[in-house]
Amino acid sequence: MPEKxxxxxxxxxxxxxxxxxTQAGEFVREExxxxxxxxxxxxxxxxxxxxxxxxxxxAGVRLAPPKRGKVKSSTRRSAEYAYEAGxxxxxxxxxxxxxxxxxxxxxxxxxxxxxxxxxxxxxxxxASHRTRSERSAAARKAVRTKGFAGRSAAARKAxxxxxxxxx
Length: 167
Fold this sequence. Notes:
Elements: H1 4-15, H2 20-36, H3 45-58, H4 73-86, H5 96-108, H6 118-128, H7 132-166
């Protein structure tokens, strides 16, 4: 179950007109936090992201399941189920045995690998798959949804990063 604060932040993003992926990012951030605090583990950064996206879909974020051929069919089915559950198009059943098994597996992975450092690598790899026009479109949308203070903060951060990389 996601924290109330996470759901509220996602709603705030929705009101600000941000993309469903941005809203879902709040749930992914919460999941990463849980891993960093040692509440449970994940085999990879992809697994942590997948858990967060699933929670987002179940919480009602309008994040469409991935297209056919992009991911395994089982992953797609799972995403469709979570999406429909979140949109109240499907009744969900609590399955205590399955839920317990998942919890035990994740807790068993707790000490395994903490994919904390893997997230930046994952982000860079994901960004490298995007075309120049896609990146440009994302930047244009950010201008519309970020607001003056947000843009100003982002510019300051970029300037700091540039000076740090030059040194």
